[in-house]
Design a protein that fits this description.
Elements: E1 10-14, H1 17-20, E2 50-51, E3 57-58, H2 85-88, H3 92-106, E4 110-114, H4 117-120, H5 131-146, E5 150-154, H6 162-168, H7 175-191, E6 197-199, H8 210-213, H9 220-244, E7 249-251, E8 253-255, E9 258-261, H10 266-288, H11 295-301, H12 316-322, E10 328-331, E11 335-338, E12 356-357, E13 363-364, H13 366-380, E14 384-388, H14 406-424, E15 430-436, E16 456-458, E17 470-472, H15 474-484
Helix pairs in contact: 3-5, 7-9, 9-12, 13-14
Bound molecules: 6-O-phosphono-beta-D-galactopyranose (BGP).
GO cellular component, one term: cytosol
Active site: 388 (nucleophile)
GO molecular function: beta-glucosidase activity
């Protein structure tokens, strides 16, 4: 059996600006939705609270739940002096040279990062972009070029300038589409010559809530209207991007943690097929350029009459078709189980007796990755790009901050072997793999530093205290060797 991955396979890592970058009020950056998300208590990490610009505190049930009824009156103000993880994160803003060098030493061929929209357009509505913001990412690209690392840019990773959320109700409004396209156009003009791979949105099928959509009252209708507007924003950006940068390649990113029927009872199998369609609603629409036949059924499940209840303009169907994805990018973290009568979106159905779990109860399922890759390729027939995968763990550094993370090595060895089988045995084309996250950063779902993913340890705690010193873990050396051998050493 061929053990190496195909020549040119893009090995790398992925990060998101608000979890990594910091510098939230430096360089002319405006406030973004995530700047208002405080970190939760360490005992109850999933209960994030959000302090709105007008001082109102809201408590989404969990970060995956949709925040209800955020007041529309909220006006952007300076943020109070309280620790918000995204304000400082792990300060890539001032450590980018050091961090990119560490990535280069690992042998990375690609680095996926997101651009902070409010660093480029502080309120989202300016006529001209913030030059200082563009300059910061120029410097990042300079460093990447120095080491021959390709950038993979996420245009919008789960956040938008707070002004667009407050003033327009985020992506629930069609107006926000034009602000997004203007922002994307600026990125293409400014960085287009240096960037081939783009992602229009992160985990678009998760449409998590206020932070990622800017939508205040998250009933089903608003949420699926926002999704439609995001589809159109993405398709318009792709059409424009293809015109401005003929060699560009566009994807959007989906959260594709797969789901198995809990039993072989036909009712459970059918229910699981229906539940999975919640994901295909997004993947099919963007990957094939039209809504799937079961779109009405999905919407009805959420109390919406059907596509006819959404505001869809006559030109939208053409836009969707012409703005199809070039490749399908996805995150894969775990699998879950489902049975008839279970609630949709219940990614917590983790009781699978055949699998071990991470400390956060996520199933460790390497074959699930191979299964997912085959399922997506069978369906869309476009190259894949695995742009997020990894394991969140509690690391125990010694006195020198060295972490012997054998669990990470074990996890990645299994997952990457399954990926290699999907590529070499099942012949699924896959452009590359960017591990989440090569360096420790703030967790999205818990707002904590305790949940660590990196090959590189960062001295920083849950409350924003620490020296920010970077120290390679045991897995750093291991992954370096895997990359050097292009997967042969797995
Ligand atoms: C994905 C997000 C990332 C990232 C990752 C890990 O859903 O795209 O931003 O954070 O999940 O999740 P967590 O940090 O919650 O463990």
């Amino acid at each position: 059996m061929v053990k190496k991955l195909p020549k040119g396979f893009l090995w790398g890592g992925a990060t998101a600006d608000f979890q990594y970058e910091g510098g939230f009020c430096e360089g002319g950056r405006g406030p973004s939705t995530h700047d208002y998300e405080t970190n939760g208590s360490q005992e109850h990490p999933r209960h994030l609270t959000m302090k709105m610009p007008d001082g109102t505190i809201i408590n989404p049930k969990s970060s995956f739940a949709i925040a209800e009824d955020v007041p529309l009156t909220a006006k952007p103000i300076l943020l109070p002096d309280q620790y918000y993880p995204s304000h400082k994160a792990v300060d890539f803003y001032h450590h980018y040279k050091e961090d990119i060098k560490l990535m280069a030493d690992l042998g990375f061929k690609v680095y996926r990062f997101s651009i902070s929209w409010s660093r480029i357009y502080p309120t989202g509505e300016e006529k001209e972009p913030n030059e200082e913001g563009l300059k910061f990412y120029d410097h990042v690209l300079d460093e990447l070029e120095k080491y021959h690392i390709q950038p993979l840019i996420t245009i919008c990773h789960d956040e938008l300038p707070i002004n667009l959320a407050v003033k327009y109700d985020g992506f629930n409004s069609r107006k926000v589409i034009s602000f997004y396209v203007q922002y994307a156009k600026t990125l293409f003009e400014h960085f287009g010559k240096r960037v081939k791979y783009w992602l229009t949105f992160n985990e678009i099928n998760a449409i998590r809530g206020f932070s990622s959509t800017g939508v205040h009252k998250a009933n089903g209708l608003n949420r699926y209207q926002a999704a439609h507007n995001m589809f159109i924003a993405s398709a318009l950006a792709i059409k424009l991007g293809h015109k401005m940068m003929p060699n560009s390649q566009f994807g959007a990113m989906f959260a594709l943690s797969t789901c198995y029927p809990k039993t072989c009872k036909p009712e459970d199998v059918l229910a699981t097929q229906e539940e999975l369609r919640e994901n295909w609603y997004f993947v099919d629409t963007m990957g094939r350029g039209y809504y799937p036949k079961f779109a009405d059924e999905i919407l009805q499940h959420h109390g919406i009459k059907g596509l006819s209840a959404l505001k869809i303009e006559p030109e939208d169907n053409n836009i969707l078709y012409e703005g199809q994805l070039d490749y399908v990018a996805f995150s894969y973290y775990r699998s879950s189980t489902f049975k008839a009568g279970d609630e949709w979106f219940n990614v917590g159905g983790d009781d699978n007796p055949y699998l071990e779990k991470t400390p956060w109860g996520w199933n460790i399922d390497s074959l699930g990755l191979r299964y997912t890759m085959n399922m997506v390729y069978d369906r869309i027939q476009k190259p894949l790009f695995i742009v997020e995968n990894g394991v969140g763990s509690i690391d125990h550094p010694d006195d020198n901050d060295y972490v012997e993370d054998n669990y990470r090595i074990k996890y990645l060895n299994q997952l990457l072997s399954a990926m290699r089988d999907a590529i070499n045995i099942d012949k699924v084309p896959c452009i590359g793999y960017t591990m989440w996250a090569p360096i420790d950063l703030v967790s999205l779902s818990t707002g904590e530093m305790k949940k660590r993913y990196g090959f590189i340890y960062v001295d920083m705690d849950d409350l924003g205290h620490g020296t920010l010193k970077r120290t390679p873990k045991k897995s750093y050396k291991w992954i370096k060797h895997i990359i050097e051998t292009n997967g042969e050493a797995l």
